[in-house]
Design goal:
The complex is a heterotrimer.
Chain A: E1 2-9, H1 13-22, E2 29-32, E3 49-50, H2 61-71, H3 73-80, E4 84-85, E5 89-93, H4 96-112, E6 118-121, H5 122-128, E7 136-140, E8 144-146, H6 148-161, E9 165-167, E10 172-177, E11 183-187, E12 190-199, H7 205-211, E13 218-229, H8 231-234, E14 241-243, E15 254-257, E16 263-266, E17 270-271, H9 282-295, E18 304-316, E19 327-329, E20 337-341, H10 347-363, H11 389-398, E21 405-407, E22 412-413, H12 414-421, H13 430-437, H14 450-461, E23 480-481
Parallel strand pairs in A: 1-2, 1-12, 2-9, 5-14, 12-20
Antiparallel strand pairs in A: 3-8, 4-8, 5-7, 6-7, 10-11, 11-12, 13-16, 13-17, 13-18, 15-16, 19-20, 21-22
Chain B: E1 2-9, H1 13-24, E2 30-33, E3 49-51, E4 60-61, H2 62-75, E5 79-81, E6 84-89, E7 94-99, E8 103-114, E9 118-120, H3 123-126, E10 136-138, H4 139-148, E11 151-152, E12 156-160, H5 164-175, E13 179-185, H6 194-201, E14 208-210, E15 212-218, E16 225-230, E17 243-246, E18 249-252, E19 256-258, H7 261-265, E20 290-292, H8 303-323, E21 331-335, E22 339-343, E23 346-347, E24 353-359, E25 363-372, E26 375-385, E27 391-395, E28 406-410
Parallel strand pairs in B: 1-2, 1-8, 2-5, 8-20, 10-18, 12-13, 12-18, 13-14, 21-28
Antiparallel strand pairs in B: 3-4, 6-7, 7-8, 9-19, 15-16, 16-17, 21-23, 22-24, 24-27, 25-26, 25-28
Helix pairs in contact in B: 1-2, 1-8, 4-5, 5-6
Chain C: E1 2-6, E2 15-21, E3 24-29, H1 35-45, E4 48-49, E5 52-58, E6 64-69, E7 73-74, H2 78-86, E8 89-91, E9 99-101, E10 111-113
Parallel strand pairs in C: 5-8
Antiparallel strand pairs in C: 1-2, 2-3, 4-7, 5-6, 6-10, 9-10
Classes of the chains: A alpha+beta, B alpha/beta, C alpha+beta.
Chain lengths: 488, 411, 120
């Protein structure tokens, strides 16, 4: 049985942020992740928005964490070497009713401590982004966009570099207690023991909570579908454009540039039973085409390169059905557990603030000794296409792998792919390489590079043909050799 | 920065043929840049036969067809850099490329020949609903795995789209022991050649379902089934015609798109119909000294015609390089009734040229009519005309005038 | 009897309307060249096809060499031919035109290499 001081269930952005913040102290830390990689669920399936914090009820954890997380993100992005742009955001309106709601939003933003929000007219909008729809808008200067994969991966890798252990393909199926009072977690990979369990299981957080002996929480997965548009459309999108909030203070479809220059159109929003069903529906896409065109004037079929879906684990009041605030709790009834339930949007923005609150709750119970070796700085894979021509020439001279372009659409080199294949978390799926490098995220969607990436995975890791996987579980890419049988 | 007379982007069939013709015409300083380790382009993975019937009068496989050109390029000592990807072309013809052994190259060229070929349309472009499991491949990717890497992609296969590569792969997969359950085509007619329907599907008892498409893709990890449905004339699925087909593999053969990202960087204007460059009868794009031919210009159905077109390009490029200019092409060629697109889009009216076109829909007993200012230049009767088949018409200078635009239509 | 054939001899893919009795072709229309009639006759008597596949190569720069038949074989024997080819492994180098199997299954057709594979 493996034993740790702290075990975090779930390697999403919050679990990884918690792991990273805990490695600041002399603690042995492990993350149990049931999937092939971090951020394969909610953390990787969203708009990639650094929220400002104006939407949430004043005084709520959502508001506090978002404002805190937003304010520090320039430093965080630098420290972790992840792409981030503080673009600002437009909330657009067409009608007088919209104007009233937008003015209320400015008021709430002020109360929550969001700086600089103002109502602007069409002329100002045209200066900011002429492709935005609407007659007037609220401009919020502090909103930003980030790469949710690279941010989660950077947190996880930085945690791993500072000593946290990631156990992938490891699913918690039951919990118990040892005689000394420590927790034991039963998994498909054997038992793990620990003093503290952090439940950061996202869509499964209510279920894990129940396993830990804390029943009663209800998670309602709310699914959303998206279109990804080509960088040719991205050339028109300078700033995230959201509609005026609905009466219930939620947002419909928005159009958001990504840090890489694509555009995301979505999400729609509907309740589902199974939060891990990421299929997209025709009816959903038909709706997005219509609502997306109101937000973004270049919503054209020729720009579609992909669709995807995600689900937000909303904690609801079982009695009223009302959506609840984040739960960050250290229940007295079950010692040694920190329960994170209903961490949904703005979870990406809030990950580090939540992690610090988790550390605080542990610290109230035991003394934490700083880890003198902790290094908050993480270096991401060097991106060839962002280098100047002189730097590119130097990189190739240093390492000829930089001279071999594997992904033509995104200009990703063999050196980057090989670095991703040897990632510190031990992720070896095709999707894992994709999210670390952007290879195959371009307009040909892997038509040129996928065959090369799978060959490199086999070559670098010595994997058999049958062991090359696309993503989670047994998503085998191949069935064997053509000549020479199925013994692959 | 080095300087070259002619830089050819892509060492596939178009680039190889253009290089050889340039050399024949007396251009000495030629450089081919090829991103793969080997020359030959997509032909390397097209191992079926049927290539070269027009060119060589025999039925060759793709690799054999390519090798005939590669051998001659080597005999001629034409310089090729393989493993070398072009990153950028500027409007003043500075080509930037990188490679393992060549490092970062910047070359100023007198003429740039765009022969990059095409890429496949993807599921993303179709926005097919469903999950994203393993087991969904474009036909060309499956062909690469099977024919180049010895990797089998699946066992129970559904094919969406009746493009030629999809048909060829239906046969390949069947020969290698997979079970191809059917080919589904959203149009009411096949998009591949009739002979491929016959020898790739009918010969192996593989059903072709026209006016059908895939409306759902299922399975979380590996593909477990697809749902197909019949479509109306506007390609919308007809309710209650859905049928679920258990399978582990979906192959997409839903169209090819000329690979013009570099052309756009060079300031070359594209035709929305071909998705390739606007060119004149010299195969010159809107940017002087930048030429295009082959699948980067418009998607061909036969490689023999790619070679021919590239040679015509090279004739003009050689003239451009050796005499310094080419005749003005002030006349527009318009695609009229039932014509999908035409190449070239501009002519001089003073020289012979080859007109290439595709019809918009299958037609029987029609005439392709070429007119200039209302005057009939050429009329070609056709018993059948299919969108799958490119029509090529040689047009003689003596039939032309230099003062009226041209219109091509089907009557 | 009447039947429409799609000729596979060349890319024209002529649709040939044929009238025939047994294996005796009475008339053909729709073919652009005389090969069309020959094709229809052959289809009635003994339909034949060529195939292309690959053979494993050991010690080569590529794992496979593509191969094809030099002459068409009876359609019904295609999978027998495939089984025979699948038994084969070649040692690099191999070159275009190398005969992998001569007169396969006595059908009067050779299996030849269609791609150069040099030593790794």
């Amino acid at each position: 049985m493996q034993r740790y001081d702290v075990i975090i269930i779930g390697g999403g952005v919050v679990g990884s942020a918690v792991a990273r913040e805990l490695t600041r102290y002399r603690l042995s830390v492990a993350v149990l992740e049931k999937e092939s990689d971090v951020c394969t669920h909610t953390s990787g399936r969203n708009t990639g928005m650094l929220h400002a914090g104006f939407l949430y009820k004043t005084g709520s954890l959502k508001a506090q964490c978002a404002v805190e997380g937003n304010a520090e993100f320039d430093r965080v992005a630098k420290e972790l070497d992840v792409p981030f742009k503080r673009t600002g955001k437009l909330l657009i309106g067409f009608t007088e009713e919209h104007r009233q709601r937008l003015l209320a939003m400015i008021e709430r933003g002020r109360a929550n401590g969001v700086p600089g929000m103002e109502l602007i007219d069409r002329a100002r909008m045209d200066e900011i982004d002429p492709s935005a729809g609407g007659n007037f808008a609220v401009y919020c200067p502090t909103s930003g966009i980030l790469d949710p994969f690279l941010y989660t991966i950077a947190l996880a890798e930085n945690a791993a570099e500072n000593g946290a252990r990631y156990h992938l393909y490891t699913e918690v199926v039951g919990c118990g207690r040892l005689e000394d009072g420590s927790h034991v977690l039963h998994t498909n990979k054997g038992d793990f023991a620990c003093r503290w369990v952090i439940n950061s299981a996202g869509l499964r957080s209510a279920k894990i909570s129940e396993m830990l002996g804390i029943p009663g929480y209800v998670i309602q997965p709310v699914k959303g579908e998206y279109f990804v548009l080509d960088k040719k459309a991205g050339a028109f999108a300078k700033i995230p454009v959201y509609p005026a909030p609905t009466e219930r203070n939620t947002f419909d479809t928005h159009a958001t540039p990504t840090v890489d220059g694509n555009v995301l159109v979505g999400p729609n929003s509907f309740n589902v039973q199974d939060g891990e069903d990421y299929s997209v529906r025709q009816i959903g896409m038909d709706g997005l085409q219509e609502s997306g065109a109101r937000m973004f004037r270049h919503m054209k079929r020729e720009y579609y390169i992909r669709t995807f879906a995600g689900a937000r684990p909303k904690r609801i009041d079982p009695a009223t059905g009302e959506i609840q605030d984040f739960l960050i709790d250290r229940p007295d009834s079950v010692p040694g557990v920190i329960n994170l339930v209903g961490i949904e949007s703005p979870g990406l923005t809030s990950a580090l603030p939540i992690a610090r609150r988790v550390v605080g709750l542990i610290r109230e119970k035991e003394e934490l000794t700083p880890n003198p070796a902790f290094n908050p700085v993480h270096r991401s894979i060097r991106r060839f296409h962002e280098a100047s021509r002189e730097e590119q020439a130097a990189l190739i001279a240093q390492n000829p792998d930089y001279g071999e372009i594997i992904c033509r659409c995104e200009t990703i080199t063999r050196a980057e792919i090989v670095a991703a294949i040897h990632n510190p978390l031990g992720v070896s799926t095709v999707n894992g390489i994709k999210v670390r490098t952007r290879a195959s995220m371009g307009r040909c969607q892997g038509g040129y590079c996928e065959t090369r990436i799978t060959a490199l995975i086999r070559e670098e890791l010595g994997k058999a043909v049958g062991d090359v996987r696309l993503t989670n579980g047994s998503s085998a890419m191949f069935t064997g050799f053509v000549k020479g049988g199925d013994q692959a | 920065m080095t300087h070259r007379q002619a830089v050819i982007i892509g060492g596939g069939p178009a680039g190889l043929a253009a290089a050889l013709r340039l050399r024949e015409k007396g251009v000495s300083d030629i450089l081919i840049l090829e991103r793969e380790q080997r020359l030959g382009g997509i032909l390397r993975q097209c191992i079926h036969d049927g290539f070269g019937l027009t060119r060589f009068g025999e039925s060759l496989s793709g690799p054999e067809y390519a090798q005939r050109f590669i051998d001659r390029v080597q005999q001629e000592g034409i310089e090729c850099i393989t493993d070398c990807t072009v990153l950028d072309i500027t409007p003043d013809k500075v080509v930037t490329a990188v490679g393992r052994s060549c490092g970062l190259l910047q070359i100023r060229a007198d003429a740039v020949l765009l022969t990059m070929g095409c890429r496949e349309r993807t599921r993303g472009a179709l926005a097919t609903p469903g999950t994203r499991p393993a087991g969904v491949y474009t036909a060309g990717v499956a062909q690469n795995y099977i024919n180049l890497q010895n990797i089998m992609v699946g066992r129970e296969v559904v094919i969406l789209g009746s493009g030629d590569i999809g048909l060829i792969m239906a046969r390949r997969l069947t020969l290698e022991g997979a079970h191809v359950l059917g080919v589904y085509e959203v149009q009411p007619y096949p998009s591949g050649l009739p002979r491929n329907i016959e020898q790739c599907l009918n010969d192996y008892g593989i059903p072709l379902h026209l006016s059908h498409t895939v409306v759902d893709i299922r399975g979380r990890e590996r593909l477990s089934s697809v749902v197909v449905a019949q479509c109306d004339e506007r390609f919308r699925p007809i309710p209650s015609t859905e049928q679920e087909i258990p399978c582990d593999t979906l192959i997409l053969s839903v169209g090819l798109i000329p690979e013009n990202e570099l052309s756009l960087a060079a300031g070359v204007e594209l035709d929305a119909r071909t998705r390739g460059a606007f060119v004149d009868e010299h195969h010159q794009t809107g940017v002087p000294g930048i030429f295009a031919a082959g699948n980067v210009l418009h998607v061909h159905d036969l490689v023999d015609f790619v070679s021919l077109e590239a040679e015509q390009l090279a004739d003009s490029a050689a003239e451009y390089l050796l005499s310094g200019s080419l005749p003005e092409c002030g006349l527009e060629v318009k695609a009229g009734q039932d014509v999908g697109h035409v190449i070239p889009q501009r002519i001089s009216g003073t020289r012979d040229f080859t007109l290439s076109l595709r019809v918009r829909r299958p037609l029987q007993n029609v005439s392709v009519v070429v007119r200039q200012g209302g005057r009939e230049v050429l009329r070609r009767k056709m018993r059948k005309a299919l969108p799958a088949e490119m029509i090529q018409l040689p047009i003689k200078a003596e039939k032309l005038t230099a003062d009226a635009d041209m219109e091509v239509c089907v009557e | 009897m009447k039947r429409t054939f799609t000729c596979i001899v060349c890319p024209n893919g002529c649709e040939i309307d044929a009238e025939y009795e047994g294996t005796n072709v009475l008339s053909v229309t729709g073919n652009l060249c005389p090969k069309g009639k020959t094709y229809v006759t052959q289809e009635l008597v003994d339909p034949r096809r060529t195939i292309a596949t690959s053979v494993r190569v050991t010690g080569g720069a590529l794992p496979l060499a593509s191969v094809r038949l030099t002459a068409a074989v009876p359609k019904a024997r295609i999978f027998d031919v495939m089984r025979e080819i699948n038994q084969k492994t070649l040692d690099a180098p191999v070159h275009i035109g190398d005969v992998v199997i001569s007169d396969i299954l006595g059908l009067g057709s050779d299996v030849i290499v269609t791609k150069n594979v040099e030593k790794a």
